Design the sequence.
């Protein structure tokens, strides 16, 4: 939706990647039938665990902030954002103070108004890269959008050729910094890059839409998606080969109460939204409220949290703005309790122990906590196992790990799923890529459909970890999900367990004594 005019490590994990994995089919097959296992059960995070109510930082999912820059000089186009600094790290500090902690994403607009019909100068490209580097330094990723028209300055008369040229200029910048990008939205066309009201109305012509989206999809770094505002735009694309990389962003989440929320049952696009959001990136934001904006589309009715959770889960949302409706709906979500019974009756994900303290007593959680913790994926370890007999004659230790996704959505970005043997100091001794595709770790069925609403099926990871001759004493088993393209700087995934240890990007699962 539009922005209102008035208010506006070098780690053990990295080292693991350097260990010769020697991956072969023999390393990733189940142990022989009849294996006697030493079992290590695990449990989820409970409210009275240490940091049990703190956000679990994981890449490319969850609540997000919003920041906007003119690419020409890193000022903001909005009067109310004049306290935003060209130093993006300082702006993130400001946003955390203003809207509260709990997000590690931000919508990031770059306005190219000054260069709409010319090349983007090197200085502006350097500005864009500077902001992305600052996000990386703070562990953030961008929901990235480029636009020309801001709804305040005169419309620019850019052409399809201008847009394609600019995508080509931007592509190397995004590729170098794709660890700090969650999704590169289609943008460019119309006010705020929302694909309405552009001077030449390119967003209404299939040939123009297909040309722009072909250039953008071809420019996407491996594993990244782009997003469009509505199904009608997607249907204009004549090359269906592009569609696998195109998700959606809903910029007016009102659960169908507002005329610009198309993501509702009964809308002609609803079947497409259900289909596409199943495995492609989905982002959203509520409208600004009247405490933030006097524009006519402002929305000052509290959006019910449990109903919102059902819609966000049904459409597999990965991220949602923490900035929009921040004086009406967000305060209500922060003070409204949800219970285990309510979540169960709504067919929403129930994380292990999430609504229970360590004594088993029921504990409510706020709606804000629940949404913060379940947007996108939420991976829990259920059990780790290793062969009770120890290392086999082949010099390998059979290992199995059961994982389950308790979030709203499956993971959307490819990652290696790696099992490791660590020494007592946490250094990798060996590592095996299980070849599992974690994007297939499906969550619970979609609550507003006739999906199976039972608990999500666990996935079993299997490996036979090489153990060097003479290895003895206390070791540990670990699970790592590193960034495949940036193992030394990209954020790894932490599992939602209080019974595992998080050490340098590795989920430490079990202690094992090796006899050498």
Sequence:
């Amino acid at each position: 939706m539009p922005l209102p005019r008035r208010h506006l490590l070098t780690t053990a994990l990295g080292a693991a990647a350097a260990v010769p994995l020697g991956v072969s089919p023999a390393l990733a097959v189940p142990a022989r039938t009849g294996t006697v296992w030493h079992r290590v059960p695990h449990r989820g995070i409970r409210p009275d665990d240490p940091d049990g109510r703190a956000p679990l930082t994981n890449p490319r999912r969850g609540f997000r902030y919003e920041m906007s820059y003119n690419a020409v000089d890193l000022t903001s186009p909005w009067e109310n954002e004049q306290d935003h600094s060209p130093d993006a790290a300082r702006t993130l500090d400001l946003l955390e103070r203003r809207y509260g902690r709990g997000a590690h994403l931000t919508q990031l607009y770059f306005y190219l108004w000054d260069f709409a019909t010319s090349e983007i100068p090197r200085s502006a490209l350097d500005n864009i890269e500077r902001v992305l580097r600052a996000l990386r330094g703070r562990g953030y990723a961008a929901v990235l959008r480029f636009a020309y028209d801001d709804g305040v300055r005169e419309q620019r008369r850019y052409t399809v050729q201008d847009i394609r040229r600019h995508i080509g200029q931007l592509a190397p910048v995004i590729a170098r910094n794709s660890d700090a990008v969650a999704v590169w939205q289609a943008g460019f066309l119309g006010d705020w890059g929302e694909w309405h009201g552009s001077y030449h109305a390119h967003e209404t012509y299939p040939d123009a839409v297909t040309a722009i989206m072909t250039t953008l999809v071809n420019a996407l770094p491996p594993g990244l998606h782009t997003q469009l505002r509505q199904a009608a735009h997607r249907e204009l694309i004549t090359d269906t080969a592009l569609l696998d990389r195109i998700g959606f962003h809903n910029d007016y989440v009102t659960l169908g109460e507002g005329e610009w929320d198309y993501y509702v049952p009964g809308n002609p696009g609803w079947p497409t939204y259900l289909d596409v959001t199943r495995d492609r990136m989905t982002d959203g934001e509520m409208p600004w409220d009247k405490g933030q904006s006097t524009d006519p589309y402002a929305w000052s009715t509290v959006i019910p949290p449990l109903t919102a959770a059902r819609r966000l889960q049904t459409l597999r949302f990965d991220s949602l703005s923490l900035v929009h409706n921040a004086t009406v709906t967000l305060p209500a979500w922060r003070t409204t309790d949800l219970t285990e019974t309510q979540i169960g009756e709504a067919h929403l994900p129930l994380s292990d122990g999430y609504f229970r303290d360590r004594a088993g007593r029921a504990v409510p959680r706020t709606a804000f906590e629940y949404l913060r913790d379940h947007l996108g994926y939420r991976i829990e370890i259920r059990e780790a196992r290793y062969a009770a007999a120890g290392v086999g004659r082949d010099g390998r230790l059979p290992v199995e790990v059961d994982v389950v996704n308790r979030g709203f959505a499956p993971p959307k970005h490819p990652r290696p799923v790696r099992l490791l043997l660590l020494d007592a100091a946490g250094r990798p001794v060996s590592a095996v890529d299980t070849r599992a595709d974690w994007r297939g770790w499906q969550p619970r069925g979609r609550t507003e459909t006739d999906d199976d609403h039972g608990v999500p099926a666990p996935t079993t990871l299997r490996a036979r970890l090489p153990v060097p001759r003479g290895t003895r004493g206390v070791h540990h088993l670990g699970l790592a999900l590193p960034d495949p393209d940036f193992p030394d700087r990209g954020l790894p995934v932490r599992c939602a367990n209080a019974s595992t240890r998080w050490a340098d990007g590795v989920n430490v699962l079990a202690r094992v004594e090796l006899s050498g």
